[in-house]
Specification:
Distance between the termini: 29 Å
Number of strands: 14
Number of helices: 10
Strand content: 15-25%
Shape: globular
Order of helices and strands: EHHHHEEEEEEEEEHHEHHHEEEH
Radius of gyration: 26 Å
Length: 421
């Protein structure tokens, strides 16, 4: 399993200037190589039955597509024409081309489901904010970290704030330097071979189904609820006020850049608070249950076709499920995704479909007279589907072990402002 450890670094002024220069040169080279690929595409593609009224490419048709190997072979020529590229470590330039190659392949080649990524774009000034050393702590590596000191080739030694030590059992893979709104960070990717294997299905003792929503962040099949935070909604007015201040500044001035960074810090704080909240919920669930059932939601489509798009994106259900899966893998807990079709409409007691509008928050079954909260009924249905998928039998209450409902205060999130600052 690949893990990423992120640490803040303290740079000297000359080191920061050098890194900013690296990012700008890498951005220009990225755009030039992307333009090479687009030129080859336009010179070798045209309509069969018509010509453009504006322009048509003329000249020799390139014999070779400018792929990664072709463009990496031209790095020596680039350094001769532009000597400033000699100051950049060669592995970093190759990784920059590999990043372009991946973006191009996502656009040209469809994935297993037949979908393709968006067309690669030219990067504006300041849009490229990271560069990667592909090897760390080995003989030919350009990056070495030891006792809180990061040594980068052609940059020098950098002090690292090691708030959490790197385990000795990890195999270090790559080192990425990232520029964020509040400073510079180093992201160390490592492989952990000590990940526990998931528990056998027969040994599962506790299971739960969770239904995410906007009234409550999630409701479990045991009746527990976690209140929604609405982190972006709470900061929305403050963010809008700061954006109005930015609109009054002269574009490109020092005050404009200062206000721009202030807005970026607000977005960063919102992101960190949301992620911290998701991690706390994920760890709470993984500690209590051996199997967790969730809906296989297409959040992008939900947000696209809903008037509540901003609230849906603020809840960030996809990010939460991704975090929950990562935490579960490290703890050997099973995560089962089920089809969300009719989980809110079907009765968890007798299985009869009970149509109801979104505004109706209580499930009332006319056949078995079951009266239950709408979200809890959906969570029980999700759990039943998951247990059937893995070959287990659900109890009458919808789970393997029925627990007493717990008040929201037991989760520790009622009225608490989460922050990393």
């Amino acid at each position: 399993m690949l893990l990423t450890y992120q640490y803040k670094i303290k740079l000297l002024p000359e080191q920061e200037i050098m890194m900013m220069q690296w990012l700008e040169l890498l951005r220009r080279h990225y755009n030039y190589c992307l333009g090479q690929r687009f030129d080859w595409l336009s010179n070798t593609r045209c309509s069969i039955d018509r010509c453009s009224l504006v322009s048509e490419p003329i000249g020799e048709i390139p014999s070779q597509f400018p792929n990664y190997n072709f463009q990496a072979g031209l790095l020596k020529q680039t350094k001769e024409l532009f000597p400033e590229y000699k100051d950049i470590y060669h592995d970093v330039q190759q990784q920059n081309l590999k990043r372009l190659d991946k973006a191009w392949d996502r656009w040209i080649k469809p994935d297993k489901s037949g979908k393709r990524g968006g067309r690669p774009r030219f990067k504006k000034v300041g849009e490229l904010r990271s560069f990667t050393f592909p090897r760390i702590n080995c003989a030919k590596a350009g990056a070495h970290i030891n006792h809180g000191i990061l040594k980068l080739s052609k940059i020098g030694e950098i002090s690292v704030i090691v708030h959490r030590s790197l385990p000795d059992s990890l195999v270090l893979k790559t080192c990425t330097i990232v520029k964020k709104a509040d400073g510079w960070y180093v992201c160390i990717s490592a492989e952990d071979e000590t990940v526990p294997t998931p528990k056998p299905i027969d040994t599962i003792k506790t299971a739960v189904g969770i239904d995410v929503g906007l009234k409550e962040f999630l409701t479990t099949s045991d009746g527990e609820v976690v209140p929604i935070q609405q982190i972006y909604r709470k900061a929305q007015n403050h963010l809008a006020r700061q954006q109005r201040f930015l609109a009054r500044q002269e574009k490109g001035s020092n005050s404009y850049k200062k206000q721009q960074n202030k807005i970026a810090r607000i977005h960063q704080r919102i992101q960190r608070q949301r992620k911290d909240f998701h991690y706390q919920i994920a760890h709470q669930l993984v500690r209590e249950y051996d199997l967790i059932a969730v809906e296989d939601l297409s959040v992008k489509n939900l947000a696209r076709n809903s008037k509540l798009a901003l609230s849906i994106l603020d809840a960030a259900w996809s990010q939460f499920i991704t975090i929950l899966e990562a935490v579960a893998v490290k703890c050997g807990v099973h995560i089962v995704k089920v089809n969300p079709h009719n989980t809110s409409q079907d009765c968890s007691g007798c299985g009869v479909k009970v149509p109801k509008a979104l505004s109706v928050r209580t499930h009332c079954c006319p056949k078995c007279n079951l009266v239950l909260d709408r979200d809890e009924n959906a969570a029980i249905n999700i759990l039943i589907k998951a247990l059937q998928a893995v070959g287990l039998i659900a109890s009458a209450g919808g789970g393997l072990v029925r627990r007493q409902p717990v008040k929201p205060e037991a989760w520790g999130f009622q009225g608490v402002q989460l922050s990393l600052f």
